[in-house]
Write a structure and sequence with these properties.
9 helices; globular; 2 domains; binds zinc ion; mainly alpha
Length: about 240
């Protein structure tokens, strides 16, 4: 059900439509979607992926996101259902949900909405207050903002081109809160590295030109997901260059 809600967020937030109102409707013929046509995954199957009135196909993204969010929520289930376990579950699950929306919205619209960046910053702050010292999250946020901001500014003055977008810089600042000063530097370098490799591959096979705009958020989000959800694996990987 949360996956189903995230589908609405992904569709509505970049189009600046309220996420609660109007109720779910077919985007093609405006027919209201009844509750029994709005059951995650199952409704997609029994409607055969089409609107019951105008037969316009619904994107296969809807059931895929519903199933993926369901699977990840199971993976994040705490071992002990004590108050700490349940609280961390809700915090990490909401981080996952917000990062997933960011990821898909950036690929589709090349924006990282402010509302999602603010939401992430608040949830990261809750986690960091529980786990880390103020020095850790304040310096992380400061580096996450200043470092990419100053590099982008310098790049703009030297070459007259905008490197990173404002949304990317705000996302780095938010991530700095949970990743801390070292973690955010790792993220900045790795996401730039993977973004550059990806662009080179796409240009070499002719799928992108030098002028094409590339959504950079997904690279930041993939690296951050490893750092946040699989920290042991990330530590092993980062011991390769060990800072
Ligand atoms: Zn329809």
């Amino acid at each position: 059900m949360i996956g189903s809600f995230l589908n609405a967020v992904i569709y509505r937030v970049p189009r600046k439509i309220n996420i609660a109102y109007p109720r779910s409707h077919c985007t093609s013929c405006k027919k209201l979607i009844y509750w029994y046509e709005n059951i995650p995954i199952l409704s997609y199957i029994f409607l055969r992926g089409k609107c019951s009135k105008c037969k316009t196909p619904y994107s296969v993204q809807y059931p895929i996101i519903e199933a993926f969010v369901g699977a990840v929520s199971v993976l994040l289930m705490p071992e002990n259902f004590d108050s700490m376990g349940v609280m961390y579950f809700f915090l990490y699950f909401s981080i996952f949900c917000a990062l997933l929306c960011h990821f898909i919205i950036d690929i589709k619209h090349q924006i990282l909405p402010d509302s999602i960046n603010i939401y992430l910053a608040l949830v990261f702050l809750c986690v960091s207050i529980l786990k880390y010292s103020p020095t850790y999250y304040i310096s992380g946020a400061a580096i996450g903002f200043l470092f990419p901001y100053l590099v982008t500014l310098a790049f703009y003055y030297l070459k007259g081109q905008q490197g990173l977008g404002g949304g990317d810089i705000k996302l780095f600042a938010a991530l700095g809160i949970i990743l801390g000063p070292v973690g955010i530097i790792n993220n900045i370098f790795l996401s730039c590295f993977f973004g550059a490799i990806f662009s080179l591959i796409m240009m070499s096979i002719g799928k992108m030109s030098r002028e094409s705009k590339l959504a950079f958020g997904p690279f930041i989000i993939i690296v951050a997901s490893f750092q946040i959800f699989l920290p042991a694996l990330f530590r092993q990987f980062s011991s390769l260059w060990s800072i």
